[in-house]
Amino acid sequence: MVPSPLALLLALGAAATALAEPLRFVDCGSVDGSIQEVNVSPCPTQPCLLHKGTSYSINVTFASKIESQGSKARVYGEMLRVDIPFPIPEPDGCKSGIQCPIQKGHSYSYLNKLPVKSEYPSIKLIVKWELVDDQEQMLFCWKIPVQITS
């Protein structure tokens, strides 16, 4: 029996949806926005296994509660309740999928990369990702557990 094209399409759609499952995250202080979804790709299970020398795609869908001319991302590795800055290639939110100026009541898809350098230690930690508006208020802040591995 040959499957119908519709059955194949539905099966492929289900598989694609399974790969892009939104992550369970902790909101750590989104004041000027509300997070609708966080995706880290590839990260099929949690904690996310981050392999050294690999770059991961970050996609955050959020709604803004304010107007802002710009936005800036700050990323940290949280260990023993201490935030260690984690450099990312593009901290400017307006160059990361967000149409600026940011409008109140609009939804946005923030897109960025999380590079995991080869020299990072193999360790379990919390990734904390903030996006602040031009008044340094939180558009969003989320945390997920990760494990850096070889």
Written overview of the protein:
The protein is elongated. The strands form two sheets. Strands 1, 3, 5, 6, 8 and 9 form a six-stranded mixed beta sheet that branches. The protein has one helix spanning 5-19; strands at 26-27, 33-41, 48-51, 54-64, 71-79, 82-85, 107-116, 124-133, 138-149. With 150 residues, it is mainly beta. 23% of the residues are buried. The chain has one domain: Immunoglobulin-like (Sandwich).
Uncertain spans, ≥5 residues at pLDDT below 50? 1-19
Write down the overall mean pLDDT. Answer: 87
Radius of gyration over C-alpha positions, nearest whole angstrom: 17 Å
Question: Got a strand count?
Answer: 9
Distance between the termini: 44 Å
CATH class: Mainly Beta
| Dominant shape | elongated
> Could you describe the largest sheet, including whether it forms a barrel?
6 strands, mixed
In short:
Keywords: Disulfide bond, Secreted, Signal. With 150 residues, the protein is mainly β. The chain has one helix at residues 5-19; strands at 26-27, 33-41, 48-51, 54-64, 71-79, 82-85, 107-116, 124-133, 138-149.
Keywords:
150 residues; mainly beta; Immunoglobulin-like; 1 helix; elongated; disordered N terminus; NPC2-like; disulfide bond; ML_Npc2-like
Write the layout of secondary structure elements.
Layout: H1 5-19, E1 26-27, E2 33-41, E3 48-51, E4 54-64, E5 71-79, E6 82-85, E7 107-116, E8 124-133, E9 138-149
Parallel strand pairs: 3-9
Antiparallel strand pairs: 1-9, 2-4, 4-7, 5-6, 5-8, 8-9
